[in-house]
Design goal:
GO terms for molecular function: ATP binding; ATP hydrolysis activity; branched-chain amino acid transmembrane transporter activity. By secondary structure, the protein is of the alpha/beta class. Helices cover about 35% and strands about 25% of the residues. It has helices at about 40-50, 70-75, 95-100, 115-120, 120-125, 135-145, 165-180, 195-200, 220-230; strands at about 1-10, 15-25, 30-35, 55-60, 65, 80, 155, 185-190, 200-205, 210-215. Bound molecules: adenosine-5'-triphosphate (ATP).
Length: about 230
Amino acid sequence: MLALRDVDSFYGSSHVLHQVGLEAKSGEILAVLGRNGVGKTTLLKTIMGLTSSHTGAIEVDGASISEMQTHQRARSGIAYVPQGREIIPDFTIRQNILMGCFARKDGKRAVPELAMELFPYLADNLNRPGGVLSGGQQQQLAIARALAADPRVLLLDEPTEGIQPNIVEEIEAIIVRLNKEVGLTVVLVEQNVGFARQAAQGFVLIEKGRVAEAGPTAELTDDLVQKHMAV
Ligand SMILES: Nc1ncnc2c1ncn2[C@@H]1O[C@H](COP(=O)(O)OP(=O)(O)OP(=O)(O)O)[C@@H](O)[C@H]1O
């Protein structure tokens, strides 16, 4: 289980998250929802130790990671798929995937079989440069790179943003498989409330850097969505 308690987070002197508490239970998908700029990306970055500083408690399976450097958090089993994917265009697909291996505990450096099974196009094109891929394929590559770390917890930042509609469903199906079949705990920053309702067991709604509402997705009413997500 991933748990945050009383977490405040900062970029320099800019105080973005305030007293954030949440729980993603093992094997669950937790949807993180809210308008643009409320702090959803900052929440994922804070879990990875990628903001300037934070206070409060962050725990994975009861063990604190709050004092750890980013690479140690990755080694503790958390993998991060950032918004915008951050693929290295001049690296091959294989090289991009292998970058995820730095966080493996067992030191293995191999393209994970699971990623090859989930993403046949990547499997067939391992020697092509990452930069030639479409947005949807780059998202697949970013997920494959995360899987190379053999994580228990996957942090996904708007994985279907900017992807053509026919590929969106494919990516969504992969996220559900990773959760249901592989058992990964997923924290999913998502603008698509429909997918959040369908895939996630729990939700948090963020407003101005604070958790405004949280609960099981059955309690994610249209009123709450209107109140905290309508623009
Ligand atoms: N590197 C940074 N330095 C200073 N402030 C930042 C930095 N990154 C984000 N912020 C600020 O933190 C706040 C939250 O931004 P964040 O990107 O976390 O929001 P978000 O909910 O993910 O938005 P979006 O849906 O647009 O991605 C915003 O006010 C933003 O301007």
